[in-house]
Hints:
By secondary structure, the chain is of the alpha+beta class. The protein has 1 helix and 7 strands; from the N terminus they run αβββββββ.
Amino acid sequence: MKKSKGISPLIAVVLLIAFVIAVGSILSGWFVSFTKERVSQAKEKGETDITCSYANLYISDADWNNTLGKLSLTVENTGSEDLSDFRMVVIYSNNTVDTLRVLPETTLSPGGYEIFYNQSGIGPCSDISQVIFKSNTCPVDAKDEIESTDISNC
């Protein structure tokens, strides 16, 4: 019987080099698209962070309406960016938290102010510990908070 030989070392080296080049081409194509995507995401986040660093809110007045169970907040945009999509975060003395949509649904321009109030009823004012008012446009920078002692008629 005749013994069969394997492929010659020269052909094996050529095949190995071709395989490495093919895998390298595939990986480099993936890496380029992955890098472009990540750079684009980082650029977008950086632009948002820079824009939001100029955003700020100030609660100048807070008033409780016991009959309606509504808290009205007079809020001023003291930053330099248009803000919208506002939320009122109510923290109660038992450490529970309600995040509430507010009315009116509006855009607050720099230097502008508006009186906002909660859409749904909240617990008695005596149970409120703290209120945070924020814009989901820039939730980290565009916010202000008050303690229950700052609320009139509470």
